[in-house]
Design a protein that fits this description.
With about 200 residues, this protein is mostly helical. The chain contains 9 helices and no strands. Helix 1 packs across helix 4, helix 4 packs across helix 5 and helix 5 packs antiparallel against helix 9. The radius of gyration is 19 Å and the shape is elongated.
Length: about 200
């Protein structure tokens, strides 16, 4: 019986996400997306809308996937704040080392391209970065850092985390990336010891 061709929406979104992540929004064409997902143009439009709509869904999927991992890493922050922050960075380092995904970070590269993207896409990238800052601030406040210090370190760790992704695109070694993490964790350790 003839009917609409069925496909796995999650797999198609993952394929589109990796294509956007690898090439960037501007350098990804509908033909690229069609090749990556195995869907023709009309199927892409009918299932996901235009390119902007598909990109937003990919950003949301990416933010949820890694956001859940960051939340899990930070869950022990009240009792083991240094371990929690190290685990937070480990999520990023593991993603960077994963041969099945491109280097870098889809959110970071979207934020860097924000001036050339639609306001909706740029706002979604800023929202994802704000959420990362908020989850870090909450974790560091739970670790008994003063509110101002918790916010300052949340800003710092968010910035360092994004810079790890950018550095990975320039082929920085794991040793170099871990040195950056160690310096940030060391600074946090000093702040935590100063409060006690």
């Amino acid at each position: 019986m003839a009917g609409k061709k069925q496909f796995d929406v999650g797999n198609a979104l993952d394929a589109a996400m990796v294509q956007f992540w690898r090439a960037g929004y501007a350098d990804t064409s509908l033909d690229d997306l069609s090749r990556a997902t195995g869907l023709n143009r009309s199927s892409i439009y009918s299932s996901f809308g235009d390119k902007d709509s598909l990109y937003l869904r990919c950003l949301d999927r990416y933010a949820a996937r890694y956001g859940n991992r960051y939340d899990q890493a930070l869950s022990c922050a009240s009792g083991e704040p240094l371990q929690a922050v190290r685990a937070f960075f480990e999520v990023t380092l593991q993603r960077i080392a994963d041969p099945d995904v491109p280097d870098g970070c889809l959110i970071a590269q979207t934020a860097m391209a924000a001036p050339t993207l639609s306001p909706t896409i740029a706002a979604r990238a800023i929202e994802a970065l704000d959420l990362q800052h908020a989850r870090l601030r909450t974790a560091l406040t739970a670790a008994q850092l003063a509110e101002g210090d918790a916010d300052d370190f949340a800003v710092h760790i968010t910035a360092v985390n994004q810079s790890l992704a950018v550095m990975s695109r320039t082929r920085a070694s794991q040793k170099q990336l871990r040195a950056v993490v160690d310096i940030s964790v060391s600074a946090l350790s000093r702040a935590l010891h100063a409060r006690s």
